[in-house]
């Protein structure tokens, strides 16, 4: 099973297109049986950040600009920006494309579709 975790500094505006895409992708992945996703918010769940040695080590040596932190199967794969649709496609072995190109498993949500 593939596990994707996002460690985020705070909640961001729902008007942000990148945040809309991330939310749509994570919603689309919820029913996929071979992929587990989790998002953690530092403001609401600081204990989780402190409990994870890998995340704590990164935070101890960097500024808040390190957020978001993407973890794939227990390994940090990206810091400082959200994963792109191309990166998410590689991580999940699914093909994600922008929603405006048609098709989709995002249920009509803005930001993504997959096929």
From TrEMBL:
UniProt GO molecular function: DNA binding
One biological process term in Gene Ontology: negative regulation of DNA-templated transcription
Entry-linked InterPro entries: Arsenical-R_ArsD
Domain of life where this protein originates: Bacteria
Protein name: Arsenic metallochaperone ArsD family protein
């Amino acid at each position: 099973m593939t596990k994707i975790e996002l460690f985020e500094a705070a909640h961001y505006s729902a008007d942000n297109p990148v945040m809309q895409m991330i939310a749509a992708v994570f919603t689309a992945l919820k029913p996929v049986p071979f992929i587990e996703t989790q998002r953690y918010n530092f403001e609401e769940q600081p204990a989780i950040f402190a409990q994870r040695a890998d995340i704590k080590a990164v935070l101890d040596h960097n500024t808040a600009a390190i957020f978001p932190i993407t973890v794939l199967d227990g390994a940090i794969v990206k810091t400082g920006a959200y994963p792109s649709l191309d990166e998410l496609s590689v991580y999940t072995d699914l093909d994600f494309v922008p929603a405006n190109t048609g098709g989709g498993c995002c249920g009509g949500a803005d930001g993504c579709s997959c096929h």
